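User: Please predict structures.

Assistant: First:
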Amino acid sequence: MEDREIGLYTFFSPGTAVITGIGHVAFRVTRLDRALDFYCGKLGFREAFRLDREGEPSPWIVYIQVAPGHFIELFPGAERVGPQPGRDAGYNHFCLLVDDLAVTLEELGRRGLAITGGPRQGLDLNYQYWITDPDGNRIELMQIMPDSPHTAADARW
């Protein structure tokens, strides 16, 4: 595949991309203990490390590791939960990939996460289920299906 220009944009062929992935998403949290229980205790991620910054309460950032090279940053000390997604620009959600959504939901339920309803198939043909963290941040759990546009895009990569 060759690089191609369309209008003002140049689309680079796979292998020439300078961005290699998403390193982390970051959230301000009202209570670090609740956030750690949710991300580590319920979702099963692990606390990777903490950073302190002079002049800021300790810890300044807590890094939660999802997989090698993939992190969630938690910034403790938020005073209140902000507005949730609607029609305004801004954060909407992030998505976590799973191999088997039904098995994942069973396990999350055993860990104490309230599971109501079941997976739904989206317009992209993938199965999805939505949860929120203790501060109301929306998280999509997604099982990529073989006939989805995601799978086709990955095959072209």
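Second:
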Amino acid sequence: MTVKVEIKKDGTAFFTCPECHYSKKKDVSAYKKTKTAVRLTCRCKCGNNYSVLLERRRHFRKKTNLSGSYTNENGDKVPIIINNLSISGISFQLDDKHNKRMLEGNGFKVEIPVDTERNIAINIGDKLMVEFYLDDREKSWVQRDVTVKYIKGDQVGGEFGSEGYYERLGGYLII
């Protein structure tokens, strides 16, 4: 079992043993800007060893399985499945009817999500309009500007534009 531990703004984290619940505060600021996942093994004074994943995200991310779409700068509308949301961003993949295309160049092979029916690709830095309904009681409609920040396999991650705060999305993420 891996325990997620949040890094606080001051660069510290509280490690709590899942067996005896003993908690200890440690300075983990050296890991704060690390690009890869940080997994540690902790040994508690009770003798229990447990695995820890340091959580560096600014905002809580909620797992979802929502249908939606994005519209690119050319006006092409493509169906997507939203995997998770936070108040500042989104992760999605193309709907099953779509897949990815392999690009090769400069010694690298890169898979990019692409609408094969219309040959529409997504690239880092692209500006998209993402639209979807939440699965809350009101079936709230969300429409947000997104800048593509990463593409990993068939997953696309983006950051919401800074304009406006959407009360429905914030309330949805708390539940």
